[in-house]
Design brief:
Distance between the termini: 35 Å
Radius of gyration: 32 Å
Number of helices: 13
Oligomer: single chain
Largest sheet: 6 strands, antiparallel
Helix content: 40-55%
Shape: elongated
Amino acid sequence: MLTLLQQLLNFENLSTIPHDQLNWLIKHSKIRKFEGGAFVGIQGKKIDGPHFLIKGNILMFMYRGNEKQDFLTLETGDIFGYLPYSRSDIAPLNALALGQVEVLSFETSMVREMISLHFELTQSLVHIMNTRVRSYTTLQQQNDKMASLGKLAAGLAHELNNPASALISDASALKKHIRAEFLFNSFFPTECLVNTQRSSIESRLVEIISGHQEKELSYKEQNQKEDSITKWMERNSISYTEEMIEVFADFNIQSDSLEFLKQSLPQKALVTVFKQLTHTLVTEKIAHNIHVASSRIADLVRSVKIYTHMDRGQQGSYSNIHEGIDNTIRMLGHKIRAGKIHINKRYGEGVPPINAHTGELNQVWTNLIDNAIDSMLENEEGLLTIVTELAGDNIKVSFTDDGPGIPKDIINNIFDPFFTTKPIGSGTGMGLENVRRIILRQGGSVKVYSVPRSTVFTVCIPINTQQTGN
């Protein structure tokens, strides 16, 4: 078992401090232990320390009114609390133990003696204080930006929701009207048809109008369908246009339907019906496109609401992680299409909802998916595989991209606050730190493994998670 001196020497900021100074620090400090959920420090109370985190993780957060804002998660080897030359003696943040925590707490009354007797130790702690001020300022700016973005998203969702709903309703009504109008104005000679014959023709025409291809065909598949229809028209000496052939293919009109109409109608009536059917199908296709576009707007609005969790309180609730991931993919749809990224979703069966803050989990999915997309952009295309599965009492979610990988010399730093490999202005370095902080707060874990063409981020979240700090 390591001695306290050995443990302090493992602290990055204390590794070069003379041993006699660290022994003096230990002499004037005491070990304090905390269970998960206990407060190590409380916002607004007199600040003490400095404190040296010997074991465990601590969430640093603050309350603004009733709103809780997380800042960062401290890990073993971090130093917090009162520091030399600090101008504040009131704690600006809460410090919450995430699981069992051990802290070496220095006697605050001895800080003046430290400054006068131990230069190297003091210098190291002052450096931490300066870094902390910069970090706190940057985090505040980031939170202010996110708050503004949330308000903008809420307003946008509200403004778009009503017209999108109206478009969907009108498009559906238009499609019904088109079908009814076509049958009402059909030009085939009714006097030549018995009721059963007319009824069967109308049923087949309704079936044709309803047969628009939902699945986008490949160029080869579309050509094959159009060639088949063209040959049928030529065999039966029926004049046609390119528009007729294209729209018949779009609505998946098979040769059996064409043969049925041919057998049911005289040649002259058949040509008239085909022309009118073409006009109706083109109009139906336009109405269909309006419906699809307006539905997409409505889906995006719904995704924004779910993503930002606008319609819920600050407390956690049971949420389906698959819905959260799907909404995130939809939100990043433009970037995914622009980067020619293919998404391979392999969702496990029987993965239950978990009690978590939906908005926070969506931040996790967004950061991991967005980073994966960025890493594959230099390939000019990519494959992102998302796998979910039940692993004992945990839900495991993995994100695998085929980008160039993370260099070995930086992979251990990617979860550090403000660490980023992106160009200036493109990243804050807080994305993966947020991922780690949120998952740790859920009692879970996040790990990374990377080699060229395969980078895997694996998130594990307890099914019966008990969030801390809510």
